[in-house]
Specification:
Structural class: mainly alpha
Number of helices: 3
Order of helices and strands: HHH
Length: 184
């Protein structure tokens, strides 16, 4: 280390002015060369570097502004989406409530319709039973009437002679004719 600092401080190693020579101390010459190159770069590159930094600064600011604008738009879209979500949730709740009430109404209607059908079937059953009873009663009456008529005819045939028989038949035919004329 002492050798390096001595080369800066001591002028023994420097060739005298007006002469040209090579300095064989690599460390001393590299530091001098570096300081010269840095000085030239700072002097001439200062404007270029400033322009590059200004351009970079403008791009960064522009990117920040665009990012802020996009952020604000994203926030707006998020708020709109939240509003739509709230509306959809409200509509879903309404549909759910309306759906439940609709289901309950349909259930009541179905129960009422079933009761009405049962009542109608009960009435139909009662009417059918009444009709069948009347039919059976009429059949029994007709059978009893036929048997009574056959019995009466048998009795009449045994008791009546033919002349009396003809008079009764004529009288009955006359009565039937009179009944027929009144109904027409």
């Amino acid at each position: 280390m002492k050798n390096i600092t001595d080369s800066f401080v001591s002028l023994d190693h420097w060739p005298p002015a007006g002469s040209f020579g090579f300095n064989t101390d690599i460390l001393a010459t590299n530091l001098i060369n570096l300081s010269v190159v840095l000085g030239v770069l700072i002097f001439f590159g200062k404007g270029v570097l400033k322009d590059l930094l200004d351009n970079r600064k403008q791009r960064i600011l522009s990117t920040i502004r665009n990012s802020e604008k996009l952020r604000e738009e994203a926030i707006e879209q998020l708020e709109k989406a939240r509003t739509r979500l709230r509306k959809v949730e409200i509509e879903a709740d309404e549909f759910r409530v309306n759906g439940y009430s609709e289901i309950e109404r349909e259930k009541r209607n179905l129960i009422n319709a079933t009761y009405e059908n049962l009542e109608r079937l009960e009435n139909y059953k009662n009417e059918t039973l009444l009709f069948e009873q009347q039919k059976a009663i009429n059949q029994v009456r007709q059978r009893v009437f036929q048997q009574a008529l056959q019995g009466a005819l048998g009795t009449l045939n045994n008791c009546l002679n033919s002349e009396l028989h003809l008079r009764i038949i004529s009288a009955n035919i006359g009565m039937l004719g009179a009944v027929k004329e009144t109904t027409d």
